[in-house]
Amino acid sequence: MSALKRILPVAVLLIAGTGSSAQAKTYEGPMRSTAVSVVREFWAFVSDVSGLTHSQGSTQTQRPQPQAIPPAPPDGPSIDLSDISNTITIERELEHKLEGNGNSLRLTVSRGSAWRGDYRLSANESHPGDLLVVSGDADIAGKLMGNLVTVNGDVMVREGGLVSGDILTLGGTVHGDGEIGGEVRSLGSTSLLTHAPMAATPIASTGALALTFARIAGVIGVFLTLAALGFGLVMFGRTNLEVVSDTVAHSFGRAFVTGLLGQILLLPTFGMLVVGLILSVAGILLLPFAVVVYTLLVIVAGVGGYLAVAHAMGETYVRRRMALGAVIGSPNSYRYLLIGMAAMASLWLAWAIFGWVPVAGNLIRGAAFLVTWLLGTAGFGAALLSRAGIKENFAGRLIPPEALTDEYLWATPQFGVPAGRRPGTRTPTRGL
Amino acid sequence: MTSLRLVLGLLLWAGTASAQSMRPFSTFRQQHGETRLRVNLQYAAGVLRLGAGPTGQLYRMDVSYDPDRFVPRSEFDAARGEVLLGVEAAGHAGLRVVSQHQLQQLATVSFSPDVDLALDVGLGAVDADLELGGLRLTDLNLETGASRAVIRFSQPNGARCGAAQLSAGAAELSVIGLGNSRCDRIDFQGGVGKVTLDFGGAWTASSNVEVQMAMGELTLRLPRQVGVRITLDKFLSSFEPSGLVRRGNSFESPGYNRDSRHLDIAMTAAVGQVRVEWVNKQ
Prior knowledge:
Chain A is of the alpha/beta class. In chain A, 50% of the residues lie in helices and 12% in strands. Chain A is built from 9 helices and 16 strands. In chain A, strand 2 (78-80), helix 3 and strand 3 (108-110) form a beta-alpha-beta unit. The relative contact order of chain A is 0.09. Chain B starts with a helix and ends with a strand. Chain B has 1 helix and 16 strands. The longest helix of chain B is centred in the N-terminal third of the chain and has 16 residues, at 2-17. Chain B is globular and about 55 Å long. By secondary structure, chain B is mainly β. Residues 10-19 and 93-97 of chain B have low confidence and may be disordered. Chain A binds chain B through residues 5, 8-9, 12, 15-16, 19, 23, 27-28, 30, 85, 87-88, 173, 179-189, 200-201, 203-206, 209-211, 213-214, 216-218, 284-285, 287-288, and chain B through 3-4, 6-7, 10-12, 14-15, 17-30, 32, 67, 71-72, 74-76, 236, 271.
C-alpha cells in the first residue's frame, strides 16, 4: 500500500509532464494514428528531459546544405505539381515520398525541379517549370515560371520578382511585394520532414492520454447528471420509478418488445398527432403545446425508463447479496440506482480507457452502445407498459387470483422464511 | 488520500486542458485587373467573419480549422472569375456527435472593395458576422442552417445589387442596414427562429421585398424616409402594425403615395409573431 502511495504521485507527474509537452507540440499530420501519437508524445517527453541534461547543440536546428535534389530513376518517386489546389492531397503525397529518404533523397518533379535547403532566384535569373523546395526558404527575385511549393520553409517574393503560378507553403509563410500570378496557400505546421525545424505556429495537440482523460471526464459527467436526475426521481416519484423498475424485472421481454415497437412508432405517432390536430380546426391552437408535451413525454419515458432499468439492476444485485448473507447498510432506492448506473457506466468507462486501442476500442464502443440501447429500449418499453409507473399489471405486484386460496394462505407464513416456490407459478414478490 | 485528490484534480485539469488540434490555413490572391468575382463560400462549422479587405488583394481567407473533421477549400477558376472558399466536412461516414470544440474553428474572409462581387454563402452550424458594407455587391445568396448570423451593411453598397436571397433554417438572423444594400429585390425565407430585418440606411431607390416566415419571431425595422407598404398573408401569426395604416389587404405608412422611394414588402407568416419597429433616418 505504501509502495502504491509512492508510485501514484510519480505516475501523476509523468502524466502531467506528457500532457504539458503535448500542449506545446505542433500538428502531427494527417496520417498519424492515435497509438502512434502516444508513442511520439512519450518519446518527445523523454527527448525534452534528455535535452535539458545534454548540450543544446543539435543538428536538428540546422538547415541542410543547399543542393538540387536529383531526379529519381524511371520507377522511382515522382510528383506532379501542376495542380496544387488540393493542399491536403499534395501534403499527403509529399509525406509519402519524402519520409525516410534523408540525404539520399531522389525525387522527380514533373515539368520542374526539386531543391533541398535555402533556394534563391536572383533578379536576372529565370526558372522554367514548377519548383519544390524542401527544408529551406525560397527567395524569389527573378522569374519563376510555374508553381512553387515549399516544405518547412518560407517564401519571399521580392519586388520585381515573379511567380507565375500558385504558391503552396507547408509549414511556412509567404512575404514580399513581388507579383504572384496564381493563388497563395499556406498550410500551417506540417509533419513532413520532422527532423527539420518547424516554421509554423505552435498549436495544441490532443494526445491519447488527454483524449482518455477527456472521455473519462465525459463518462463521469454523464453519470453524475443521470445520478442527479435519478435522485430527483426517487425523491419525487419513487412509487412510479419502482413500478417501472418492477415491470422491467418481471416482464423484461415484453418491455423490450414494447420499447422496440415504441421506438419504431414514435415518428408515425407524432405525425398522426400533428395531422389530427391540424384536421380538427380547434386542435390547431394546441399544436405547439402538443409538440412540446409529446417531446417531453418521450424524453421522460426514455430517461426515466433507463433509470428504472438501473434501479432494477441495482435492486436485483443487492437482494442477491443479502440473500447470500451480506450485510447491506441501507438497501434503498438510492443505492439501487447508484449500483445499477455504475454497472451500466462500466462499459463506457472501459471504452473511455481503452477506446484508443485499434479495433478493440471500436468493439468496446459498439458493445457499450448496444447494451445501452438494449437496456434503454427495455426501460422505455417498461415505462410505456406501466404507463409511467401508474399501471402495475406487468410489475408482478398483484397477487394472482389463483394464489388467493386457503392452501396458499395456509402455506405462506407471515414471518420467517418464505414458502418455497410452487412449481409452475411465478413468484409474486419482486426483485428476487 | 492526498494522492487520490491529486489524481482527481489532474483528471479534471486534463479534461479541460485537452485542446483540439486546430490547424492554420491561409489563402489569398493578388488582384490583376479583375473587375468582377463570383464567390462560393461554404463554411460548415465555427466562427466566420467577413468583410472588405485591402485594395490589390482579390480575396483572402485565414482559417483555423479542425483537421480531423474538416478540409479547407480554396479553388480559383480564372476563366469564370469564380472562387470557392471555405471549410467543408471531411466526408467521413457514420454518426458523429457534434463537439463543442468544432465551434472553435475561426475563419476571417475578406474581398477586394474594387471588384463587383456576387456572393453565394452557405453556413452550417456557424456564428457568423458578415460586414458587407464597403464591398461592391451585385448579388447575394445566403443560406444558413443552425446558425446565428449578423449581416451588416454599415456603408452603402458600392454597386447596384440585383437581388439578395436570404434563407435561414433554424437560425437567429439579423440583417442590419438593408437600405444600404441598394438591392432591387430582397427575398427572405425563414424556417424556425428569430429574425430581424432592419431596413435602415441610405435609401437611393425603391425596393421590393418578399418575406416568408414559417415559425418564429420576425421583427421588421422600417425606415421613416421611404414609403412602406406591407402586404400580409398570415395563418396563425400575430401582427402588430404599429404606425401603419390599413388600406384593403395591405398596411401602408402615412403618406406612402407622396414618397418618391417605396419599400414594398410582401409577407407570408405561418406561425409566430411579426413586429414592426421604426428606425430614424441614418
